[in-house]
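ugh ok fine here u go
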Amino acid sequence: MSYKIYTVDRIEEDTAVLYDENDNKSDIPAADLPEGIKEGDILRFDAENQVYTIDEEKTARTKSCISERFKKLFKK
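structure:
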């Protein structure tokens, strides 16, 4: 089973703006996504079952990496 990976860029009213690994944008109804999604979450899309799930582990790693980059960027 293969998954497509998306990053939640933002949520506007009832629509989530997602970007895939190739930086292609998709607007998805928020109701079609897992409850509690937030900006920056990494989602896996199972095309066979038409289901999005939050990849908690990849989300945590990505957020940690971004945090470290900001610390280095603004380090005095």
